[in-house]
Amino acid sequence: MPGVSDAPLKGVRVLDLSRVFSGPWATQLIGDLGAEVVKVEQPGRGDDLRRLGPPFLRDRDGGETAESAYFLSTNRNKRSIAVDLSTPEGQDIVRGLARASDVCVENFKVGNLAKYGLDADSLRQDNPRLVYCSITAFGQTGPYRHRAGYDTLLQAMCGVMSLTGNPDGEPGGGPTKVGFVLSDLLSGMYAALAIVAALYGRDARGGGGQAIDISMFDAQLAALSHQAMHYLLSGENPKRFGSAAPSVVPSQRFACSDGHIILVAGNDAQFRRLCQLLGRPDLAEDARFATNGARVRNRATLIPELERVFLGRSKAEWLASLEEAGLVAGPINDLSDVFADPHVAARDTVVRVRHAQADDVPLVRSPMRFSATPLDTYTAPPTHGQHTDDVLTGLLGMQAAELDALEARGIIARSGVGS
């Protein structure tokens, strides 16, 4: 069974009707915490995320499989069954699984599952203890509720792109997308937190289940945090600062003789130490730069002074000196640098698992570290329909002949190896 034997959510069963990224990210987090996650995919097609590549996993013979890096990143610690939700028989299977589950997660368009009797009201009528979480682009209410949405759209509409990138007029200036699916990840994390809270409310306080409405739009907007408050308090749109921070100076990229480093002087004492190290104690004594507020107002004057000094030495020389001085600085790494970093090895950040098609698949370990219930067991993301037999016989008591008949009609798919 996927999950850790003594993990915090051992004994919780999740029916995962979601696909692509936000929903699967939420259910993967819950699976990491020890819940049993049953992922339902469409026969003959599977989760659309399987096809978003290259790169794709290579099998034991070196051949390319249909398992994309995208899919592998969001679907560990799950079992996959392939069931056609558009058929009455498939709907009956899902209803049976919902009755046997604690949680159901879906990210269909608003109203789509109601056509099949698989919406929150329908499934919770049969199982009042069910926690039913819906993740959509814009939520279950509001004028945009029926719209579809992807991460790039949400980053644009919620203002993330207006905050990211170089200022207008500078090289490469203009609104810029964050380089990963930020709104999907945020909505998945909010969903996982909400699900755990709802389970606590149900079990610790004796309440029933409930429906949870997670909007990618809401999640992305909430995560604007201090930038949202900047606007709400001032009425002014925050500006783009490239690698710099709007309210801390210096906090940005600096060019050295052989490349770039990142440096943050988060308070006035750190700035004074930095100026001593740079051989420019006069800057810390200058009233224009003596406090962070003054440095923010006068960044255009200060930063060129610092840039000239950093150009005089190499990255390695500066980083060694900055670390010795107890200042916050580091390299700007590519992912090849990141995964070669000794700290990554020391923290056992990469875990390797045996997949149905490959022996040694690397995954990024959960960042949640528990002292009493460690998350130390991981199962590989499943192939399409890999566990259909096990789940339908084990949870619903279906017999081989019944499964054979359903498979022959295309209602289920069994023991798939990607699709």
Give your account of this protein's structure:
It is a single chain. By secondary structure, this protein is α/β, with parallel strands linked by helices. It has helices at residues 22-32, 69-74, 88-99, 120-126, 151-157, 160-163, 182-204, 216-222, 225-234, 268-278, 281-285, 292-297, 299-310, 315-324, 335-340, 342-346, 388-396, 400-408; strands at residues 13-16, 36-41, 56-58, 64-68, 79-83, 103-106, 131-136, 211-215, 251-256, 259-264, 328-331, 350-353, 361-364, 412-413. It is 38% helix and 15% strand. A seven-stranded mixed sheet has the order 8-7-6-1-2-5-14, with helices on both faces. A hairpin with a 2-residue loop joins strand 9 (251-256) and strand 10 (259-264). Helix 1 (22-32) packs across helix 7 (182-204). The radius of gyration is 25 Å and the shape is elongated.
Question: What's this, in brief?
Answer:
The protein has helices at 22-32, 69-74, 88-99, 120-126, 151-157, 160-163, 182-204, 216-222, 225-234, 268-278, 281-285, 292-297, 299-310, 315-324, 335-340, 342-346, 388-396, 400-408; strands at residues 13-16, 36-41, 56-58, 64-68, 79-83, 103-106, 131-136, 211-215, 251-256, 259-264, 328-331, 350-353, 361-364, 412-413. With 419 residues, it is of the alpha/beta class.
Oligomer: single chain
Our count of domains comes out at: 2
| Residue windows where pLDDT falls under 50 for at least 5 positions | none
Overall structural class, as computed from helix and strand content, comes to alpha/beta
Pfam family, one: CoA_transf_3
Organism: Enterovirga aerilata
GO molecular function, one term: CoA-transferase activity
Keywords: Transferase
